[in-house]
Amino acid sequence: MKARLAALAVLVVFAATAWRYAAGLQEIAAVGSRAPDFRLQDITGETFRLSELRGRPVLLNFWATWCPPCIEEAPALEALHQRYGDRLAVVGVDRLEAAPAVLEFRDRFGLTYPLLLDRDGAVGDRYGVRGLPETWLIDADGTARFHRRGAVTFEFVQTMYRQALGRSIDGDGVGPVPAGGHAFDLEHLGGLLVMAAGSGLAAADPSAGVDLAAPESWTVDPRLDFPVHVLARVGDGTGDAGEFWAATTDGVWVGRPAAGGEPEDWRPAGLQGRVVLGLALSPGDRTALAWVPDEGLYRWENDEWTYLETDLDPELGSLALAADPGRPGRWLAGYEEGLLESVDDGHTWRPIGPGRAVFDLYLAGEVLYLATDQGIWQSRDVGLTAEPLGSPMRAFTAVTGSPDGILWALAPNGDLYARDGQGTWQRQGGGPGGAALGAGEPGGMSLGGGEP
Predict the structure, then answer these.
(1) Residue 143: is it exposed, middle or buried by C-beta count within 10 angstroms (0-12/13-18/19+)?
(2) Is the C or the N end of the chain the one with fewer CB within 10 Å?
(3) What are the two backbone dihedrals, phi and then psi, of residue 143, each rounded to the nearest 5 degrees?
(4) Are 144 and 195 in a shared domain?
């Protein structure tokens, strides 16, 4: 009897050892190694195999419906899928949940990228998942190149892609913005879209049916070929009236952009030798405010700039400034932590509105539009409260409108989006998912009073 028990014990130990050995033969994910292949069913019952995506980079995201950071990042993953689905496969792997819960989540957030069911957690175990969400970037040859624990944003994935794969996900660039460049501001003037970027100024006619993602669709201004951060308009801002003021790395300049004809000369308008990262004009009394990092606010009055004593921290970085045309002396300033308000011509400021980074402000009648790190928002009480406007979940550096009621939004990489009369946002040009919505196209939404 003892001999039989001893033999049985040996068999058990042998079986356990063999199981551990077999399990050890399975590939375990590690950056720089081949990503473990797997088969899983998606929420429709179709079988999905990772290796079938070989030839295209894959963003593999482990998540669950109950996970707050997963809920936060899902719209950004959808935005990535819509923008880069032709060059990056976004795949979601739900951990330990049944199909009905995942289906409800998909419908709630309007997700269109593949959602797989890791019901027993085995695939997540092979990828070393400890918490949720976790994301892996796998290159076109099937090698794991990057691993992230925690939520990702649209911009984080753009950076991850460049660092891990050694090239920009945008190829050579978008529109007038080269790969690795940065777009800062966007304005509409006389039927033209004018973009301010790290490479200078460029203008395009969106009603001409051109591909706004193509560099050749833009006329680069040869007179302002250094970084331009902010554009502000003089005059009533409609038709061909007025001029632009440009905040640059060499102070403030005044002129008109080159497009469709010979531009007027740009001329210096003060603060030369300083980097200006904020600029706004008051339409009523011909005053302006300019923000110079590490110094503070300057006020333009009586044809000169004077330093303005304020309670703002000079180390805030950039400020998105705007004057409230309905309340003289009231100014707004967006910055990396939200929105500030001054009701005494810029001397004292208090926080209002959404608690997220605000990069640009556009006033149309009683409605304030905000370009934020989480899409375009709108405020119907001129900044006191705000709500998202259904744009793609990504950072936008600028928002503006055209007289026919179309709302335009600019992303840091140069992507342009337009919002039509039905409230639908669509990227302009540039392959799959892009469109051509001309600024002269009828049916635009009412922005509450036209351009200010």
Answers:
(1) middle
(2) N
(3) -95, 135
(4) no
Contact between residue 292 and residue 302 where contact means Cβ atoms under 8 Å apart: no
| Same domain as 356, residue 239 | yes
The answer to whether 306 and 298 have CB atoms below 8 angstroms apart is yes
DSSP characters over 193-236 = EEEEETTEEEEE-GGGT--TTSGGGSEEPTT--S-EEEEEE-SS
Tell me: do 254 and 364 sit in the same domain: yes
**Domains: count for the chain:** 2
Helix (H, G, I), strand (E, B) or coil at 107: helix
279 and 403 assigned to the same domain = yes
Return the CATH number at 116.
Answer: 3.40.30.10
Which residue type does 265 have?
D
Record the tokens describing residue 303, joined without a space. Answer: 């044809």
* pLDDT by position in tens, the chain (length 452): 444 444 444 343 344 333 333 444 468 999 999 999 999 999 999 999 999 999 999 999 999 999 999 999 999 999 999 999 999 999 999 999 999 999 999 999 999 999 999 999 999 999 999 999 999 999 999 999 999 999 999 999 999 999 999 999 999 999 999 999 999 999 998 888 999 999 999 999 998 989 999 999 999 988 888 999 999 986 543 334 567 899 999 999 998 876 544 556 799 999 999 999 999 999 876 899 999 999 999 999 989 999 999 999 999 999 999 999 889 999 999 999 999 999 999 999 999 988 899 999 999 988 999 999 999 999 999 999 999 999 999 999 999 999 888 999 999 999 999 998 889 999 998 765 666 554 333 333 333 333 33
Peptide bond into 133 cis (omega under 30): yes
- First-to-last alpha carbon distance for the chain, in angstroms, is 96
The number of residues in the chain equals 452
Q: Which amino acid is at 5?
A: L
Report if residue 253 sits inside a domain: yes
Shared domain for 238 and 259, answered yes or no, is yes
DSSP single-letter state for residue 265:
P
> Whole-angstrom Cα distance, residue 208 to residue 202?
16
* Domain-located, residue 16: no
- What CATH number should be reported for the domain holding residue 423? 2.120.10.30
Identify whether residues 287 and 404 lie together within a single domain: yes
Tokens of residue 251, six digits: 């102070």
Q: Which domain holds residue 293?
A: 173-435
Domain co-membership, 127 together with 179? no
Tell whether 290 is covered by a domain. Answer: yes
- Identify whether 280 is part of a domain: yes
pLDDT digits (tens, 9 = 90+) for 250-307: 999 998 876 544 556 799 999 999 999 999 999 876 899 999 999 999 999 989 999 9
89 with 193, same domain: the answer is no
